[in-house]
Here is the input.
Amino acid sequence: MTTALRSDHGLFGPTSVTWRVHLEPVMWVAGMRALLLQSLHPRVMRGTFQNSALFDPAKAWPRFQRTVEFVGTRTFGSLAEVEAAGARVRRLHHRLRGFDPESGRRFPIDAPEGLLWVHCGEIDSYVDVARRAGIVSAAEADEYVAESVRAAEVVGLDPAVVPASRAELAEYFARMRPRLRVTDEARVAVGGLLAPPAPPPGAPAWTRAAISATATTALATLPRWARRMYGLPGLPTTDLVASALLGGLRRATDLLPDPPAPPEVREARRLVREVRAGRSV
Here is the structure.
């Protein structure tokens, strides 16, 4: 990814809510929440389980890194970089098929219903954690969801069908809930997050503990109905505790030096700080 100063800030830019949200370290919890929420769709979960290296201990870390790199490019890259990354993902998904043992049929991984579910699980997780951690106001949360429609187009979704507000997201999940449940594949996936195997060569030594702690926190931030599907309490007190924890994590990370990041993320931090200080970029 290019690092020189440029006027092309891609899909979002330094004045967007998206840049501000995705620069926050607490968003790692949101990423894990997204995985847990997305896993409740049987067909999406099976297609992912059958095709992704995320469930192979020897390949999971490199695969995870590629996913992080894609999200980083989509968020902070130039328009050309975003389109190139999106084209690679669309080509990959178009070649893949999953098998549904209940119907005995194969299905395309890039079916619009599945792509939309993955997108909504991701965006709902990011906006929920950002709101509860005190990163955005209610109005900014809606602005973030509206901005995310641009990200949905990158993976091939028609923007006309993508929720553009928190209210539309809530309506979408209400429609989808009768189709959701925990499959055996989801149990394996969630178990691997809560009690991950020893990290493969190349992964930092702290990976295992970090994944387990982040997954545990993410479970507590799921909607009550999703927690109940996983056999966990859906009590309001859990929501209060999770919100307090997210706020505390956000305040703690504010006191720490910026974590290591690629050049484009460091540049984004600088530009966002200039915008917040009232300087033009």
User: Anything to note?
Assistant: Residues 1-5 have pLDDT under 50 and may be disordered. Residues 17-273 form one domain. The first helix runs from residue 17 to 22.
